[in-house]
Amino acid sequence: MSFACLDGLPAMLTNTRGASAAPTLAFPTSSHTRFAPAHFPHDNPVGTDVSEPAKILIVEDDFLAASEIEDVLREAGYEIAGIADSAQAAAKLARSELPTLIIMDVRLIGRADGVDAALEIFRDTGIRCIFATAHYDESVRSRAQASDPLGWLKKPYAPHALIAMVRHALAKL
After folding, report:
1. Is residue 23 a part of any domain in this protein?
2. Residue 51 — very low, low, confident or very high, per pLDDT cuts 50/70/90?
3. Distance of alpha carbon 22 from alpha carbon 19, whole angstroms
4. Residue 66 belongs to a domain
5. Domain that holds residue 129
6. Does 17 fall in a domain?
7. Neighbours of 4 (CB within 10 A)
8. Strand 79-84 relative to strand 101-104: parallel, antiparallel, unpaired?
9. CATH number, domain at 135?
10. Is residue 142 domain-resident?
11. Residue 87 has pLDDT above 60, yes or no
12. What is the mean pLDDT of residues 153-172?
């Protein structure tokens, strides 16, 4: 299996970890705050219907990064299934919201990491992930192999790289 990585892109989303961890959060985002799609009808993501945009779960422990990802995806016309900052919260949201795919960071709050979450979610639901992380060395990718990842996006990355990776992933589904 090959992994898609986008390197060398301008930093728009950064991970600003603090010394202390915030409490674990997991919540479906409200659909009434949707932005108007920033694309033309012929630019719809492959594999999705205009009336039902792909639903994406964001798993990211950095609140600012998660908010930026959410804004970028909404502006591109995608629905957000929720945001989780721990493996446990991610698995719970994935089972309840059944997203089309997941944007997964590797480092999360708690003992379990994003690979643990991806493996559990894939085993329980068959939902696959795009790993968006600065931590994607060979050992991490080897552990994640069983979750059949849709791609790897190296942090930091630009918003257009995230959208390109999501479109590429949706085309694989």
Report:
1. no
2. low
3. 10
4. yes
5. 53-172
6. no
7. 15
8. unpaired
9. 3.40.50.2300
10. yes
11. yes
12. 96
Residue 157 has pLDDT above 80, yes or no: yes
Which pLDDT score is estimated for 156?
93
Q: Do 107 and 113 form a contact (C-beta atoms < 8 A)? A: yes
Number of domains in the chain: 1
Geometric angle at alpha carbon 116, from 138 and 22, rounded to 5°: 110
DSSP H helices in 8-158: 63-75, 87-97, 114-125, 138-144
Distance CA 60, CA 83 (A): 7
How far is it, in rounded angstroms, from Cα 65 to Cα 1?
A: 29
Q: State which amino acid sits at residue 22.
A: A
pLDDT band at 136 (very low <50, low <70, confident <90, very high): confident
CB 25 within 8 Å of CB 151: no
pTM of the full predicted structure?
0.73
Amino acid at 59: V
- The answer, yes or no, to whether residue 65 has pLDDT greater than 70, is yes
Could you give the maximum distance between any two Cα atoms of the chain, in Å?
A: 45
